[in-house]
Amino acid sequence: MPADNSKATAAVIQADKDFNDYCAKHGLAAGFLKFADSSQVSLNQGALPTRGIVALHKSLDKDLADSSASKLTWGPERGEASGNIGYTFGPWKFASKTKAGNDTVLHGYYVTVWKLQKDGTWKYVLDGGNDTPDPDKK
Which helix (H) or strand (E) holds 105? Predict the structure, then answer.
């Protein structure tokens, strides 16, 4: 009989939602740092991965220095967990204004791998995604 992982799955899905909510309230840099495991790896569009919390901090400082007019939102479409590891997967949307004042909206899908911490919280160890066409313009 397979193990019942429903509580761990619900917890990892909730961690993903909490991550998104925290970013909305406190900013992307604060959220990505708060929810990252110290050994995190971030897969970056058109660039090499960012490995570790120190590199993530430097990357976020550079990439988000002028992001007050930007908003990234996401939500898990699916997630699963077993033991101390889990994943979430779903769509993301990034809205910003260009320096010329034009609205820009990008869409994509992400996958995040989560690890259960000793204190009972979930932190991501791997995060990445890809760009997609606007799902509303099929």
Answer: strand 103-116
